[in-house]
Amino acid sequence: CLATLIVMLVGDTYTLINYVSFINYLCYGVTIIGLIVLRWKKPRIFRPIKVNLLIPITYLAFWTYLLVFSLYSEPVVCGVGLIIILTGVPVFFLGVYWRNKPKCVNRLIESLTCWGQKLCFVVYPQCGSAEEE
After folding, report:
1. Distances (CA, A) of 91 to 59, 102, 114, 117, 125
2. Which residues contact 70 (CB under 8 A, 6 or more apart)?
3. The organism sits in which domain of life (predicted)?
């Protein structure tokens, strides 16, 4: 979020849309690759919708073309898009991967989550303990 705010303050909206579109292409392609890998590694799990593998493979071919063309035509925009994605890696390690966090860090994460929910009106906040209610 911080990198996006900086880009919004410095750059124009067209550039920001280019960053986001590259990120979207990348995420869609990784999702389709995950679908193909799951179909190959775990063929017996339940799937509510099952399509012929020709469809995701064809999509992947077009995706590869779009991604390579984007990297070739606008490498700086794609690089900044990758940097925006990589800003989430430390957040993942601090918030999800690190299991034995000190209580003060857990309290900080919970309060930030509660504050964000209140700010964005996303979910009814469940801050504090049940004793306060």
Report:
1. 31, 16, 17, 18, 22
2. 22, 25, 77, 78
3. Eukaryota
Specify burial of residue 125 (Cβ count, 10 A radius: 0-12, 13-18, 19+): middle
> Are 80 and 10 a contacting pair, CB within 8 Å?
no
Domain hosting 66: range is 1-120
In a domain, 133, yes or no: no
Residues 6+ apart with CB under 8 A from 53: 36, 39
> Does pTM top 0.85 for this prediction?
no
* Residue 100 DSSP class: S
Please tell me whether residue 50 adopts helix, strand or coil conformation.
coil
Within a domain: residue 95? yes
pLDDT of residue 74 exceeding 90: no
| pLDDT band, residue 54 (cuts 50/70/90) | very high
CA-CA distance, 81 to 23, in Å (whole number)? 6
In a domain, 101, yes or no: yes
